[in-house]
Amino acid sequence: MTIARTSSIHCLSFDVEEHFQVSAFWSKARRQQWDKYESRVENNTRKLIELLAQHNTKATFFVLGWVAERCPEIVRSIAAQGHEVASHGYGHELITDQTPGMFRDDVRKAKGILEDICGKRVYGYRAPSFSITKDTKWAIPLLIEEGYLYDSSIFPVLHDRYGMPDATPTIHLLRGESGCIWEVPPSTTSILGIRLPVAGGGYFRLFPYPILRQLLKRIERAGHPLVMYLHPWELDPNQPKMQGSYLSMFRHYINLHKTEDRLRSLLEDFSFTSIREALEPVSQACARAEMEWSQAKPLALEDHIESMRLGI
Ligand SMILES: [Zn+2]
After folding, report:
1. CA of residue 13 to ligand 1 center, whole Å
2. In DSSP terms, which residues pair with 61 in a beta bridge?
3. Where are the domains of the chain?
4. How deeply is 289 buried, as exposed, middle or buried, from its count of CB atoms within 10 A (0-12, 13-18, 19+)?
5. From ligand 1's centre to the CA of 184, what distance in Å?
């Protein structure tokens, strides 16, 4: 089951983490120093919230539990501005480096922290560096068991560090023994049979904007919602430089000074909102879950599937 639609409201998302937490610069030694680095995530996220307010746009913020613990005010501000708070896990460790037990603890801890801070249920999850791959598909049923209703971690592209090139590139429903979950893959497009990522991050800064715009318009014309992602640190060209491989440094620092203007152009050229609001079936699944919790009445799996089918 996949979603294609005629309206043109797209999904905008941000992975809220510090500039020193990106996977490309990850090392055990650096991980132990996290508390000693200068924190810039709060200012950068505030800048983002302000920019979105200027364009009257809502978005989904996948917040790292580690960040939420240290900057709870920013989580409250995100929620207070009407944005969706979702989970980026707790410790930003690649799923490929975790056991199923570690992964369950990580996503449970992050969800609990975020829900306690913002006083709202958290339904969405995005893995660090899109690290649900063919080797970590076991993560999907665990996310369902932990109460997540959608996931945005499977990037259907060929990449040296992540990706599942054969995965369905459009939004679709995944079923597990204990329920279902919507998979919301970041946007891609095919050129000469090659699937290219156009969803955000380094690609957003690398392609000339007019070309990117054209590619995104093509997806829009095909009736598919865009799923875009960025990070608060991408709007911070003055962040301290981390050392890493040439490729990682290129991807991380290329055109950081252009991100803000590009994001403004993107917000003028397309209409965005949060994942929950943009995707009717996801929105209905969340609303039904809320009703279920408020009535403390378990919802039968078949009812759950049927409700999502009706939303398409
Ligand atoms: Zn991340």
Report:
1. 12
2. 14, 85
3. 9-276
4. middle
5. 16
Span from the CA of 17 to the centroid of ligand 1 (angstroms): 6
For residue 90, report the distance from its CA to the centre of ligand 1, in Å. 10
Ligand 1 geometric centre to CA of 125 (Å): 11
Task: Tell me the C-alpha to C-alpha distance, in Å, between residue 144 and each of 108, 123, 156, 199.
Answer: 11, 10, 21, 25
Q: What is the pLDDT along the chain (312 residues), one digit of tens a residue?
A: 555 444 589 999 999 999 999 888 888 888 889 999 999 999 999 999 999 999 999 999 999 999 999 999 999 999 999 999 999 999 999 999 999 999 999 999 999 999 999 999 999 999 999 999 999 999 999 999 999 999 999 998 776 667 787 888 889 999 888 899 999 999 999 888 888 889 888 888 888 999 999 999 999 999 999 999 999 999 999 988 888 888 888 888 788 888 999 999 999 999 999 999 999 999 999 999 988 877 765 555 555 554 444 433
Q: Answer yes or no: are the C-beta atoms of 289 and 123 closer than 8 Å.
A: yes
How far, in Å, is the centroid of ligand 1 from the Cα of 92? 6
C-alpha 16 – ligand 1 centre gap (Å): 7
3-class DSSP state of 284: helix
Which of these CATH numbers, 3.20.20.370, 3.90.870.10, 2.40.50.140, 3.90.226.10, describes 9-276?
3.20.20.370
Q: How far is the centre of ligand 1, averaged over its atoms, from the C-alpha of 15 (Å)? A: 6
